[in-house]
């Protein structure tokens, strides 16, 4: 298979705590990959390594054939939603996304508004993010991850703490992104979401990774 993303022998420790040991897997373009495992098993750490937020102690990450860390700290064209997204609470959702978009300078207000509408947020809403509900913050995090039309999405627990309605909407949005052909990585503590959305599911256990469902081709 043509590997779009490849992790080779990734090992990561924090002091004496070994979190990941010789993790290897590869993913083809357009695949949706789920990661499951107990609390503290290393799912977020693996995602952070994939996004260049954490460096492995050894091993390589290749994204579209380019190795991370070789003059390239962060992979290109990867949309990221990890933990509770940090926004500036005194500004509106639109203003926050404008600040973030200015870092790359790739998109303008039109694309930001489109991303907000896509996740079900009103760009005209002047509410400060401090006063957003948890679900609105999650949606804003997803809007930020997709607004630059990145074709790889890394989504760590996007369903966390959502009410039923918002959870259903979020699931629908992710199904649409999958149908658009995005390559997606997803964690969730609800196995049925992972089963619905993912083509391949990996389990992290005892620092190792194992394919528990799906095909590698
Ligand atoms: N920056 C850090 N410094 C030290 N230890 C860390 C750091 N980040 C993560 N860890 C440790 O790495 C291990 C894996 O954490 P991680 O957040 O990846 O777990 P997880 O599988 O995402 O868990 P959860 O399902 O609870 O979100 C934990 O033991 C955690 O304490």
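-> sequence recovered:
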């Amino acid at each position: 298979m043509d590997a779009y993303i490849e992790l080779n022998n990734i090992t990561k420790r924090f002091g004496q705590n070994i979190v990941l040991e010789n993790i290897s897997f590869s993913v083809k373009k357009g695949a949706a990959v789920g990661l499951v495992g107990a609390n503290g098993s290393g799912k977020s750490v693996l995602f952070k390594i994939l996004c260049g937020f954490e460096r492995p102690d050894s091993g390589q990450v290749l994204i579209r054939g380019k190795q991370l860390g070789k003059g390239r700290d962060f992979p290109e064209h990867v949309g990221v939603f990890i933990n509770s997204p940090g926004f500036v609470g005194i500004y509106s959702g639109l203003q926050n996304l404008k600040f973030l978009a200015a870092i790359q300078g790739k998109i303008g207000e039109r694309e930001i508004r489109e991303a907000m509408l896509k996740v079900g947020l009103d760009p005209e809403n002047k509410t400060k993010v401090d006063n957003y509900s948890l679900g609105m913050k999650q949606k804003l995090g997803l809007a930020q991850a997709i607004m630059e039309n990145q074709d790889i999405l890394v989504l760590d627990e996007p369903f966390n703490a959502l009410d039923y309605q918002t959870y259903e909407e979020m699931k629908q949005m992710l199904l649409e992104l999958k149908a658009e052909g995005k390559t997606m990585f997803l964690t969730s503590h609800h196995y049925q979401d992972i089963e619905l959305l993912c083509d391949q599911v990996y389990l992290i256990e005892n620092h190792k990774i194992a394919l528990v469902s799906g095909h590698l081709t």
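Residues 85-149 form one domain.
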